Amino acid sequence: MTTALKQPHHVVIVGAGFGGLEAAFGLAGAPVRITLIDRRNHHLFQPLLYQVATASLATSEIAWPIRYLLRDRPEVTTLFANVNGVDAEGKRVLLEDGDTISYDTLVLATGARHAYFGHDEWEPFAPGLKTLEDATTLRRRILVAFERAERETDPARRAALLTFVIIGAGPTGVEMAGTIADLAKDTLPPDFRNIDTHKTRVVLVEAGPRVLAGFPEDLSAYALRSLQELGVEVVLGQPVTECAIDGVVYGGNRLEARTIVWAAGVRASRAAEWLNAPADRAYRLKVEPDLTVPGHPDIFAVGDTVTIAGPDGNPVPGIAPAAKQQGRYVAALIKARLSGGTLPPFRYKHAGSLAQIGKRKAVIDFGRIKLRGNLAWWIWGIAHIYFLIGLRNRLSVALSWLWIHARDQRAARLITQGSSKVTG
Amino acid sequence: MTTALKQPHHVVIVGAGFGGLEAAFGLAGAPVRITLIDRRNHHLFQPLLYQVATASLATSEIAWPIRYLLRDRPEVTTLFANVNGVDAEGKRVLLEDGDTISYDTLVLATGARHAYFGHDEWEPFAPGLKTLEDATTLRRRILVAFERAERETDPARRAALLTFVIIGAGPTGVEMAGTIADLAKDTLPPDFRNIDTHKTRVVLVEAGPRVLAGFPEDLSAYALRSLQELGVEVVLGQPVTECAIDGVVYGGNRLEARTIVWAAGVRASRAAEWLNAPADRAYRLKVEPDLTVPGHPDIFAVGDTVTIAGPDGNPVPGIAPAAKQQGRYVAALIKARLSGGTLPPFRYKHAGSLAQIGKRKAVIDFGRIKLRGNLAWWIWGIAHIYFLIGLRNRLSVALSWLWIHARDQRAARLITQGSSKVTG
């Protein structure tokens, strides 16, 4: 299918994450037609993905069919397809199935995935958390570890089954560690007979000197104390040097553990490779101040797949609000260009950083205002519910959280896939 | 692990479906210890499984961790394990991993799975609906068919992608057909640009002379008319003679279809084989009037894995209320025996038959009272919410149904697993 229509201007957006979707939203009313391509049929609210991995939320509570989000926009066509290249000279996007899609303007919002810094062989033992499947895989591993421990009679093997290692103490690592600790200490104890799930070890291993390195030092220190109060063992300044099926090595010591979670780093998508464009070590495209790819004024890139300096000189962080601001900027610039104008360079406004620590605390850095503890948790919760799309999911997530807080009951404790040996 | 404890009486229940769980509930307060074994970690509310397959409900809305349901019963141990045999002489259950569990009384509640009447080779093309994985697999197939049709330019291939064949017009087949029709006519149309999902063909093929053969003839006739009003093409008196990747054959004619759903029959688990006990053609154990296995007074069997005549001479139907009554009876009889008594034979009380037809109608057969239409749908809906376990899932399902009815929005339109080709 070669799209040969010349009129109206055709914007192709690759990726329906926060950046791509916001670009599509921002182009409402513009004299364009839009093709939005994603290899998934759903937009994912990644900030809460760790709650699916820890059985707190259902998959459908944090994901929406992309088509549904754009149903009222007849000029937008959603394609469920895999992009595997860009022909910048021919102004075409190449799909894996051989089709090509011509564009007038291209927006690459292709995101990032977890990266193992040259140790891809660790991935089977230490899965990361980027997709719904990643989350249900982790959920299965965590829940199966408790099930196996319940039936294990050898004390050493039982201890290894009840040891959970999280590698990387950024927001995802901190949130995973705190939530697994809650699960083990509050949700599971009454359900098991042979094991005491209070004895679960949750070990958070960080190569750098502190947890939540992107936050001010006093909030990092608070997060550290809060994690320790939850029973999480925090190991700082120790890079992991080996991951295997039965444990990890750091600081020269081996820790036997049957469940390892990778939260230590990401790499950008292959967009830089597609364009043979300059990128940083994490493969992030180095974009111009207007978010175009150098040498390609008709190709924009936004979100986790780019690197650009913020007003403070530091790189813009790889978080949802940054991707949304970039998507919105690109939409506005495309509109301006179509009416013969232009816009000043993209300028990132940092609204704040948030991280949940266990089920009743959070840290928030709004710049001048810093919050921590239970009040911060309330703001964290309300902000996340606010940013969910649609009343239905807001009600549903609020209901799930109410049950976690009031009854320590996590609704999505399902072991699915991989448990399907059938005896019948 | 050979369980050698003699005191107290040890009841082993295999299977935590409706029958097995009810037996465990019914034994509350009895002087026994109980081991409940299931190869899943969750109890599944199978009557609503078709709603997961059609994106109406989330998996976690109809499934509960088994351990959680029995958390307040310290005498109950839940094992997440596969049973693959029974040593009736040694009074031991054999687990796939080599362990054995000794019992004083055994309750087999091992259920049924879909059966292809000697055509197991059809299974990959016409999956059935018994587990959560079955439901998410069907959901993926149904949603992917619409996605592929949207991108397909060949009219014949597009028509095949938009043709859904359901084989078997019992309650599951009727409910699947009606709900796929609703999905295509009410939920999806505004979301697609290249296809008109109103043109979806839903074909329900039944070998027998009428739909819902277990219901009175007038309700069958009403269900047939209602399905036809929803646009479902109902084919009666035609057994399917071939299933393949690209279609089905019935009545000598080939129908091109890319999605086929098997709702035509079930076979019991291997419990009869384990015991080398008499069974019917569908492998259902022929049990004694007190639900024991002939020659094994210490082994009970309940639910879909047994066949027994009801008070009207017909076999007790394979539905949840029948399994629950049997589980309850077995619990009562075990209690009676422990205090030196016994009970009269099991007597099935048919409370009623219900089936939903599309999102606003149902048929109900309460024996003397027969209901159909919208009022029946309300009773159907209230009954199903009532039989869900726990306030949280009741609220959650009610919320999901409210959105379907008020907005035609189905919350769980997620394509997961198998779409995981990664471009990044």
Automatic annotation (TrEMBL), chains A, B:
It catalyses: a quinone + NADH + H(+) = a quinol + NAD(+). It comes from the Bacteria. It is an enzyme of class 1 (oxidoreductase). Residues 10-327 form the FAD/NAD(P)-binding domain. GO terms for molecular function: NADH dehydrogenase (quinone) (non-electrogenic) activity. Residues 350-402 form the External alternative NADH-ubiquinone oxidoreductase-like C-terminal domain. InterPro entries: FAD/NAD-bd_sf, FAD/NAD-binding_dom, NDH-2, NDH2-like_C. Its EC number is 1.6.5.9. Keywords: FAD, Flavoprotein, NAD, Oxidoreductase, Transit peptide. Belongs to the NADH dehydrogenase family. This is NADH:ubiquinone reductase (non-electrogenic). The lineage of its organism: Bacteria, Pseudomonadati, Pseudomonadota, Alphaproteobacteria, Hyphomicrobiales.
